[in-house]
Amino acid sequence: MSFFSGIPVAPPIEVFHRNKQYLDEKAPEKVNLTIGAYRTNEGVPMVLPVVKQAEIELANDSSLNHEYLPVLGHEGFRNAAMELVLGEDSPAIKEKRAFGIQCLSGTGSLRAGAEFLAGVVGLKTAYVSQPTWGNHKLVFKNAGFTAINTYTYWNAEKRCVNIDQLVDDLDNAPEKSVIILHGCAHNPTGMDPTQEQWKRIAQVIKKRNLFPFFDIAYQGFATGDPNADAWAVRYFVDQGLEMVVAQSFAKNFGLYNERVGNLTVVVNDKEVIPGFLSQMSLVIRANWSNPPAHGAQVVHLVLTNPDKRQQWMDSIKEMSGRIKTMREALRTKLEALGTPGTWNHITEQIGMFSFTGLTGAQVDHLIKAYKIFLLSDGRINICGLNTSNIDYVANAIDRTVRS
Ligand code: LMR
Question: Any residues with CB less than 8 A from the CB of 106 and at least 6 apart, and which?
Fold first, then answer.
């Protein structure tokens, strides 16, 4: 007899499960296209040079210690993160109706925001895109949302955003529903709405009195320019919408395991801010009490020093540039092989991922026969491709599609 008898075994978390399968695989030709983490052309993780430099400076800074940060986090970091996403000239910042709250990477920012909306504001219905990142539903469910619905996002046949159905679904969502939007580089499809489409989305959100909750985990990875990648968020601010924005610095600073994130909040009336912050302090106090300092100090140092910020922008260009090169290489090779189907979507999609259109059976075959690991919905992390394995992967896809 145990308190824990009868606990059913939960299904594995696919992205980590597949990553482990890759790590455990002995075949030397194995390829990892699973988890959304950047790899160099040599297939190894990248510590951004400016991050390394900032870490050395921080290690030598005798004024720093390991005392607790405030519950809401490192103030300089919170401001720098908010400015990164809203833009330094943001009307919301000028009017002092925007603020940041340091959280644990993107997931912690989503969780704190969701728990606040459910527990303090009383919003209980959320909508995520279909398809979406594998963790969205779980976060919102555990945060207290009682209805988690989907809105149409993807037209699988044409491999594009199904904007008419998307707008229609939002038009039919109950008032005060929370709408989770991918700020850029939609995960898993790699296809973002155009500016005209974002305008329609903002319009219906405003008309139906819905609440936009942006998740922007890949700022800089869509176009190589962090400002361009924040266009949708900034447009929504210009439209006078209130919102929260979950930011992650895992990908764009390569700080995956430091759990650096920020929840940027935009409100219409700055009088509500003291109440908001005091209640959010309780949400965070009950979760992680106060956040870790190291990653936030690194991001703060880099974003607030013009030379370091430029070096960071250069690294973003390098990383996103390599992704683009690999997209082109994969498409070119598949087209040269005459692989059945069309492959233009590989270069039309943006960010780390490509939603290849490969079926579940084809994915299984690629794993079993070629030791190429990817997600069952056909999503590949383009960063796992490099000049040494691109021919192998293209040939494997070609043979798999023909078999
Ligand atoms: C991914 O989608 O692969 C990443 O965001 C990693 C994760 O936590 O799922």
Answer: 215, 217, 246, 247, 248, 250, 261
Q: Are 287 and 81 in contact (CB under 8 A)?
A: no
Site to probe by mutation for ligand 1, drawn from 34, 38, 187, 248 as the one with most ligand atoms within 8 Å of Cβ, is 187
Q: Which of 235, 255, 236 is nearest to 106 (CA)?
A: 255
Burial (Cβ within 10 Å: 0-12, 13-18, ≥19) of residue 274: exposed
User: How far, in Å, CA of 56 to CA of 51, rounded?
Assistant: 9
| pTM attached to this predicted model | 0.97
Identify which of 14, 135, 256, 257 to mutate to test ligand 1's pocket (most ligand atoms within 8 A of the CB). 135
Confidence of residue 1 (pLDDT cuts 50, 70, 90): confident
The answer to whether the CB of 363 is under 6 A from ligand 1 is no
| pLDDT digit string, tens, across residues 238-296 | 999 999 999 999 999 999 999 999 999 999 999 999 999 999 999 999 999 999 999 99
The atom of ligand 1 lying closest to the CA of 375 is 3
- CATH architecture entry for 14-47+318-402: Alpha-Beta Complex (3.90)
Q: At residue 362, what is the residue type?
A: Q
Please name the CATH architecture into which domain 68-304 falls: 3-Layer(aba) Sandwich (3.40)
Q: What is the Cα–Cα distance from 154 to 189, expressed in whole angstroms? A: 8
Q: Assess whether the C-beta atom of 133 lies below 6 angstroms from ligand 1.
A: yes
Provide the ipTM.
Answer: 0.95
Q: Which residues are registered as beta bridge partners of 178?
A: 126, 211
Domain parsing of the chain, residue ranges: 14-47+318-402, 68-304
Could you give the residue numbers annotated as active site? Answer: 133, 215, 251
Mean pLDDT score, 380-396: 98
Beta bridge partners of 125: 147
CA 150 to chain centroid = 18
Write the DSSP symbol of residue 388: T
Classified as helix, coil or strand, 92 is: helix
C-alpha radius of gyration, the chain, whole number: 21
Cβ atoms of 346 and 354 within 8 Å: the answer is yes
Nearest CA to ligand 1 atom 2: 36
